[in-house]
From TrEMBL:
The keyword Repeat does not apply. Keywords: Membrane, Transmembrane, Transmembrane helix. GO terms for molecular function: transmembrane transporter activity. It comes from the Eukaryota. GO terms for cellular component: membrane. Its main location: membrane. It comes from Arabidopsis suecica. This is Xanthine/uracil/vitamin C permease. It is a multi-pass membrane protein. Belongs to the nucleobase:cation symporter-2 (NCS2) (TC 2.A.40) family.
């Protein structure tokens, strides 16, 4: 009998015998230090349903952070469908050993006794660089009974957090002070409503301060248009929170409409007009184009076609499209700030300091510097400019800033006219000339003029405005609602935005009225998701619009300060667009290339169209910051039809149009998984029936929804 045979009277052990612990082979530098290279596909992504999608890695803890809301909120671990089917509880799972894999032992050698034994568990582990290893012995232990662990190695588990856990839906809104359907007291509603609209002051009033001077309007015209914007924004916000998406989203003059408006304003046929006739004529042309383009958007939403377009619109499409809107105005921003650097640069520095360096300072649990960065910096800079003006810093002997430059004879005064015009705060008479009470009424500028080529441009722009709104609906719903809206709710909201933009065209706001992209940032910062707050603020906005002095006061903001604030607003608009990539795998090489190509060509292709045919010595009658918008007169697209030339040259010179075309084509033709693309996950009708909270979030008030039950694509 060999020495290896068992002794008489002893029970044989399992076969094969457990090997003795051996020294661990030397590891590479990466394994020793736990270094984990972050290549394409290894980044953590939040999927479009608002839940954290993880790569195939193990969780070292039982709780996981939710990155969507910007805070680390703990989530319960996912429950597998098999565990639910078997009726396992959390206690059973803790007592149950981890899942194991079995190995089939080889047959015993001749002469030995084969004893049936339990399968030896072998635990799979993954190295930080993706190499899978094993640990020997029962329960993954080495010969001494201690578990074998190497630095940087964690266990392999499931990929995606579940999408139907009620606890997760409840925890989603824990970071908000008030949820979508909460109704705070009258005092909190008033305070938070004022806070909400003050934080978005720049988005509401800056667009008319740009387009009205470009149309040749006077200070009184600027005041009247600002009052009209406040009135229409209040009315359309009330309509949207009641009969649209029902999310707490402020409606107003979006930057998406600014570039096409400037292109229409600088059309060659308007160059011969001057004075007040120029302003009214161009405004009527804009009204006609906005009405037709908005009617097209309303048909797009209420007909259900938007539900089909939603299949093509994903975060990889939304991100570069919205980012291109902000990047397209680089020629307007700092060139106008340079007209008075001592005022403009101070304005930019203040808003940066408040929004970034002082953002964590709280007063009464409110981050006042972050929330009120725009109005605070505007007030301080405006006050400083007023003191400098009164102190005579911008006063030159024998020079009157109110005299037109063309009438100035003295070369000394002509040298300082630009400085006096842009640095002084008393050159605008909008406040003194504005009436105390004025009611904005439809067709106040005259009957709209309908021109098919300008209307076609606005129809294309309305599609991009819809894409912008879709991204805002999804992002805001993850913050304030129980679930994202259904496709029907999205179509209904887009249809209503088209209708409200028709109202904006009738009232003569100069642009369409759509969901402001800055809503998402404001909701995340203020932690206020109640629609009642937004509705009360909209009512206050309507009341302010009836006070002519309010519009006159806002219209008297110096143009340099407007340009300085726009530098910040457009930069934030660009960043908000790119933030949509958090719903996809931002580190994926596929997405990186698509977004990079879309952004690059959105800048390069319009530059070709805008510079084509311009002589270096040409003496253009428009300022340099308006030259990118006169492409219709010299673009490379030339055919025998002037209207077609106008449409093609104008559309292809817009950055957002090129970015949208590139992103849509590439994202929907280049293969990629849904998780990698971050495909938006919208709720369905079955979920609305199963979960009353979803129906209460999005159903129409006053039982209006019963009229839409027969049309499934505009309801829940």
């Amino acid at each position: 009998m060999s020495s290896s045979d068992p002794k008489p009277g002893t029970k044989p052990g399992p076969w094969p015998p457990a090997p003795e612990s051996a020294a661990m082979p030397p590891s590479s530098w990466a394994k020793k230090t736990g270094f984990r290279p972050k290549f394409s596909g290894e980044t953590t992504a939040t999927d479009s349903s608002g839940q954290l999608s993880l790569p195939v890695r193990a969780r070292q803890q039982e709780t996981q952070p939710d990155l969507e809301a910007g805070q680390a909120r703990l989530r319960p671990p996912p429950v597998s469908s098999s565990a639910v089917a078997n009726g396992e509880t959390d206690k059973d799972k803790k007592e149950k050993p981890p899942p194991t894999t079995t190995t089939t032992p080889p047959p015993p050698p001749p002469g030995s006794v084969a004893v049936p034994v339990k399968d030896q568990p072998v635990k799979r582990r993954r190295d930080s660089d993706g190499v899978t290893g094993r640990s020997n012995g029962p329960d993954g232990a080495n010969g001494s009974g201690d578990p074998v662990r190497r630095p940087g190695r964690i266990e392999e588990t499931v990929e995606v957090l579940p999408q139907s856990m009620d606890d997760d839906l409840v925890a989603r809104n824990l970071h908000m002070k008030y949820g979508l359907r909460d109704t705070p007291g009258l005092v909190p509603i008033g305070f938070y409503g004022l806070q909400h609209y003050l934080s978005m002051l720049g988005s509401l009033i800056l667009v008319p301060l740009v387009i009205v001077p470009a149309m040749g309007g006077s200070h009184e015209d600027i005041a009247n248009v600002v009052s009209t914007v406040l009135f229409v924004s209040g009315i359309t916000t009330l309509l949207h929170t009641s009969f649209g998406s029902r999310l707490p989203l402020i409606q107003g003059p979006s930057f998406v409409f600014l570039a096409p408006a400037l292109a229409i304003i600088n059309s060659p046929e308007f160059q011969g007009l001057n004075g007040n006739n120029n302003f009214k004529h161009i405004m009527r042309e804009l009204q006609g184009a906005i009405i037709i383009g908005s009617a097209f958007q309303a048909v797009l939403g209420y007909s259900g076609l938007m539900s089909l377009i939603l299949r093509l619109v994903n975060p990889v499409v939304v991100a570069p499209t919205i980012a291109a809107v902000g990047l397209s105005f680089y020629s307007y921003g700092f060139p106008l700030v340079g007209k008075c650097l001592e005022i403009g640069v101070v304005q930019i520095l203040l808003v940066i300091i408040f929004a970034l360096y002082l953002r964590k300072i709280s007063v009464l649990s409110h981050r006042i510097f972050l929330i009120y960065a725009v109005p605070l910096s505007l007030a301080i800079t405006w006050a400083a400019a007023f003191l400098l003006t009164e102190a005579g810093a911008f006063t030159y002997k024998g020079c009157d800033p109110n005299v037109p430059v063309s009438n100035v004879v003295s070369s000394h005064c002509r040298k300082y006219m630009t400085r006096m015009k842009y640095c002084r705060v008393d050159t605008s008479h909008a406040l003194s000339s504005a009436p105390w009470f004025r009611f904005p009424y439809p067709l106040q500028w005259g009957v709209p003029i309908f021109n098919w080529k300008m209307a076609f441009v606005m129809c294309v722009v309305s599609i991009i405005a819809s894409v912008d709104s879709v991204g805002s609906y999804h992002a805001s719903s993850l913050l304030v609602a129980s679930r994202p809206p259904t496709r029907g709710v999205v179509s209904r909201a887009i249809g209503l935005e088209g209708f409200t933009s028709v109202l904006a065209g009738l009232w003569g706001m100069g642009t369409g009225s759509t969901t402001l992209t800055e809503n998402v940032h404001t909701i995340a910062v203020t932690k206020m998701g109640s629609r009642r707050v937004v509705e009360l603020g909209a009512c206050v906005l309507v009341i302010f619009s009836l006070l002519g002095k309010v519009g006159g006061f806002l219209a008297s903001i110096p143009q340099v300060m407007v340009a300085s604030l726009l530098c910040f607003m457009w930069a934030m608009f660009t960043a908000l667009g790119l933030s949509n990539l958090r719903y996809s795998e931002a580190g994926s090489s596929r997405n990186i290339i698509i977004v990079g190509l879309s952004l690059f060509f959105s800048l390069s292709v319009p530059a070709y169209f805008q510079q084509y045919g311009i002589s270096p010595n040409s003496n253009l009658s428009v300022p340099s910051y308006y030259q990118p918008y006169i492409v219709s007169s010299h673009g490379p697209f030339k055919s025998q039809y002037k209207g077609v030339n106008y449409v093609m040259n104008t559309l292809l010179s817009m950055n957002m149009v090129i970015a949208f075309i590139m992103a849509v084509i590439l994202d929907n033709t280049v293969p990629g998984s849904k998780q990698e693309r971050g495909v938006y996950v919208w709720s369905d009708s079955e979920t609305a029936t199963r979960e009353p909270a979803l129906a209460k979030d999005y159903e129409l008030p006053f039982r209006v929804g019963r009229f839409f039950r027969w049309v499934k694509w505009v309801g829940i």
